[in-house]
Structure formats: structure tokens, C-alpha cells
Amino acid sequence: MGSRKSKPQPTPDFDTPWRDMDWNEKEDLEAELTNIQLNHPELRRVRILLHGPVGAGKSCFINSVQSVFQGEIKTKAFEQANSKKSCTKTYKSYTITNRNSVTLPFVFNDVMGLETQDEEGIHPKDIVNALQGHVEDGHKFNPVSPLSDGDQGFVREPSLEDKVHCLVSVVPASSISRMDTGIINKMETVRKEAMNLGIPHMVVMTKVDDDVCPLVKKDLTQIYRSRKIKEKMLESSHRLGPPMKCIFPVSNYHEEYNLNDTKDFLILTALLQIVKFAKDYIKEYHMTHE
Ligand SMILES: Nc1nc2c(ncn2[C@@H]2O[C@H](COP(=O)(O)OP(=O)(O)OP(=O)(O)O)[C@@H](O)[C@H]2O)c(=O)[nH]1
Ligand SMILES: [Mg+2]
Question: Atom 12 of ligand 1 has which residue's CA nearest to it?
Fold first, then answer.
């Protein structure tokens, strides 16, 4: 071969992936998510609430899900690169439609990011308001004054569809270790409230393609053979609370204009688990107790 020296290639840490993944199952996952039956007369869609620090990739995750189901890159929720302040400010629901214009049985809400400074990010009480279905669509959050009964934008008698059925914390793999304890404490408050209400809590760990692991940056299919990624997942579990089985690594569509089966697979795997947990919660809390 030529005289050019080749760079040493990163090697996998685990011989076999520690989570079993069949990358060819993408169509099955898509079909399962499209056809999920909620078995409740008052519910067409489960509501998934995304929260987390500013710039974690909440809006980007919603856009990535929409892209997977449309088969091309979409930007529904507004994203912003290098933003210090939260770019999402109002409470907005995002339904997802597929290529055949079918509206899928789940809906997302993303709230503005949590920040260290109390006067800047969303107030944790407003996330709890959202969990309980009290926040009207289109409400503009006020970081210093969370909604209370009687305010404009406060939904006094939320329907089952207004309420949140799964809470998802979105955190970047690249910064979980450095995340400010002020933000972690706010996320802890929200988790406790969700647990009191019986609402399941999951973590979507974004930006696994960023500078976390050279092996994964080069080849995303190696994700479950990387010690670094596993460490970041364990750290997310310890810092945020949910067990490892509730932590899902993803790489959002952030710069590319073509879809990628591995990215799709990771996004769909996370989403299916979120929707299944939401469905379990509805079965447990809204079928037998109401
Ligand atoms: N490399 C990489 N970049 C990502 C990923 N997800 C999001 N980004 C980038 O991170 C930036 C912030 O993403 P957003 O989706 O706007 O973040 P957000 O959580 O909605 O932030 P706020 O609404 O401001 O609280 C954007 O430039 C995205 O392109 C990812 O998985 N990998
Ligand atoms: Mg956003």
C-alpha cells in the first residue's frame, strides 16, 4: 500500500454489545408505534413532556422523530445553535404525522430549558403544572412567576388528553458530568412530583455523536460496545434518578440532510419505550381508579 501512515483506529471496549440491538428492525418499530392501541375512550394520543437544560436537544428530538416518520429531514419545533438562553419559550403541542398523513398516537410538548439562574429558565413549578395538564397550549412561560389557579393560561379542569403521561429528561451525553447542581436539583423536584403522580420518567441522552467517544463518533452502530457511552448513561442514571433501563442514547438529526438507519433505530427504540411506559401508566392510573 502507499507510504501514508494511517491513524490508529478506535477499538470497541466490549466484544459484544451490552444491549441487544437488531438494526434491521426499524420498519417493525415504526409499524408498532403507528399501530399502538391505547384502549381508552377519552384518549387519542399519549402526551410526552420533554424537559432539561437549555440547548440539550429537546426541540431537535421532536424534529428528529418527525423526520424519521416522514422519511426526510423536518424542522417543526424551532431549534437554535449555541444558544445560552432558552430558545423555546411557549408551551406548544407537536403532533407527528407519517408519510401517509396519518397522525400518530403520541404528542410531544417541549418546555423552555431549565437554567441555573431562577429568573431565566422555566420555573420547576410550571413543569409540574404541565404534568398535571394545567398549562394552556400557546402559554408563554414566565420564569419568575409560575402559573396558578385563576391566571390566564391556567387550565382548571384538564382532560386526560391534556395531562402528561410520560416525563422525559433530555440531557446531552457530552455535558451530563458538568451539569450544574442547581439544574440537577430542579430536575429532582420535577421527578419527585412525577413519581407522586405515578407518571413514568425516562431519560433521552442526546449528542452521543459529539466528542464523547471516538469510536461512536466514527461509527454510531458501535454505541453499545463503548465503555464511555455506558459510563455517561450510568452517570445520567445516578444524577437524574431513573434506572439504566430507562436511559436511551440518541443522536438527533442536527446537521445532515439524509436519514440514517442507525439514528432512526435509536430514536424509535427510545420512543417505543416511552410510549409503552405511558400506556402502562394510563392502564394503571386511569382505567382502574377512575
Ligand atoms: N451533535 C449533536 N448536536 C445536537 C444533537 N441534538 C441537538 N443538537 C444541537 O444542539 C443545539 C440545541 O438544540 P435544541 O433542540 O434547540 O435544544 P433545546 O433543548 O430545544 O433548547 P431550548 O429550547 O433553548 O431550551 C442545536 O444546534 C442542535 O442542532 C445531537 O444529538 N447531536
Ligand atoms: Mg427548544
Answer: 55
